[in-house]
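WARN retry 2 of 3 for item q-0093 after timeout on previous attempt; input resubmitted unchanged.
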Amino acid sequence: MNDSAVMASPARSAKKPFYRSLYFHVLVAILLGVMLGHFMPTLAVQMKPLGDAFIKLVKMVIGPIIFCTVVTGMAGMGDMKKVGRVGGKALLYFEVVSTLSLVIGLVMGHLFHPGTGFNLDPATIDTKALAAYTTAAHHQNTVEFLMHIIPDTVFSAFSTGNVLQILLISVLFGAALAAMGEHGRPLVRMLDQFAQTFFGIVHIIMKVAAIGAFGSIAFTIGTYGIGAVVPLLKLIGAFYVTLVFFVLVVLGVISRMLGFSILRFLGYIREEILIVLGTSSSEAALPQMLEKLERLGCSKSVVGLVIPAGYSFNLDGTNIYLTMAVLFIAQAFNIELSLTQQLTLVGVAMLTSKGASGVAGAAFVMLTSTLLVFPIIPVSGMVLILGIHRFMGTGLAIANTIGNGVATLVVSAWENELDRSKLNAVMSHRRTD
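OK item q-0093 returned
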C-alpha cells in the first residue's frame, strides 16, 4: 500500500501546471536575480541575506534528518556486519570515482590549456586576499581532520552542523539501538516519526527556495559582475565542459550499467539541481535528496549512510576543480609539470580533498591545501581564481550532488536493496514528463 502510494506520488505531482512547480519558480528567480545583479548591482548585493537565510533554514534540519534516517535504517538492519559492508562498498566506490574525476580534470586541463598566455610573475601578485584561506588550509592536516570527526559533545555536533560528526554519532547510536533488539523498537518508531516530521519541515522550507535562489544569485552577479569573468572565460568554459562530460559520460555509463538513463535521473532531481544552482550550496539540496532517493527505490539504511558520507568523501566536482585549477595556475606561470609530478598531484589532491570538510569556502581551502603540500606551483596564483571561484563553485556543487545521488543508487544495487519496480516506474514517468 505504501509502495504504491510512493510510486503514485510523482504522477500526481506531474498533473500540476508547470508554472506551479518548484523548478519553474526557482528558474524564474535565478533569471530575475541575474538581471537585478547586472542592471542594479548595488541593490542586488543587499539581497544576500535572502540566500543566507534559506541555506541556514536547510542546514537547521540537516542534522536531525541525518540522525533519524541513519539510526532507523541501522536499527532496521539489525546486523552490524551489513553496516560495515555497506560502508566499505561506499568508500570503495568513492575512492575509485574520485580518482577518476581527478585524472579527468588533469587531462582536460591539458586539452584546453586555459592558463596559457597569462605569462605571470609571482612577485607581481598581491596575495593579501588569500590570507584567510591559507590560514584555514594550514590547520587542515590528516590527523587533525580525523580528530575533528569526533565532536566535543554529542550536542556540539548538531550545533555546529558538522555532517561527519553527526554521522559518527548516528552510527554509534544506531548500533547501540540495534543491539537492544525488541526493547528498542518503540524508540525506533518514535525516531521514524521524528524523521517524517522534519521532512515535513523541509517541504515547508522549500516553498521559499525561489526567494533564496534569487538572493544568492543576485548577490553573486552584483558583487563580481558578469564582466569579471570575461578574462577567465576559457577556464570557466573548460571547467563546465569537463563537468558535463563527467556527468553525461562517466556517470552516464555507470547509470546505464545499473539500467537507467542519467538524463532521466537528472530530470528526476531537476528541482534539487536548480536549488544548488541558485544557492551554490550542495547542502541546500541534501534533505530533498535523501527523500527522493528513498522514493526512487533505495533502502533507507543505504541512503542514510551513503549521502552524508559522500559529502566528505565523494566530491566529484570538487576533484575536477582541484586538478584543473592547479594546472591552470601552473600554465599561467609557464611551469611545466612532469608526469611524475602530475601523478603526485593526483595523490596529494586525493588527500587534501578530504581535509576541509565543514570549512567555509571548502573547495578553495582544499585548493590552498593542495598547493601548500605541492610547492612546485606558487600559492599566489590562486588570486587569479579568487574572483571567479563562486561561479565555478556552483558547477562543482551541482556535480557533487549528482555524483552522490548516483553513488547511492550504485551501493543500493550492489547490496541488492534497489527496488527496480520503483526505479522503473519513476524513470519511465519522467521520460514522458
